[in-house]
Design a protein that fits this description.
Blueprint: H1 11-33, H2 35-39
């Protein structure tokens, strides 16, 4: 009997998944230590339309 072959994902998929997880972790670290950087970002809040 020949051994079962493992179905492994390609290295590109593993690298992309690791980069996404790393970016999320870095984002939370930046928010914890540098909250002022993210205070002035546009969050899409509703703003009144100025009259002409």
């Amino acid at each position: 009997m020949e051994p079962q072959k493992k179905n492994k994902p390609s290295s590109l998929v593993i690298i992309l998944f690791a980069l996404i997880v790393l970016m999320i972790i870095i984002y939370f670290i930046l928010v914890m230590f540098f909250p002022t950087v993210f205070e002035h970002m546009n969050t899409g809040d509703i703003q009144p339309v100025p009259d002409k």
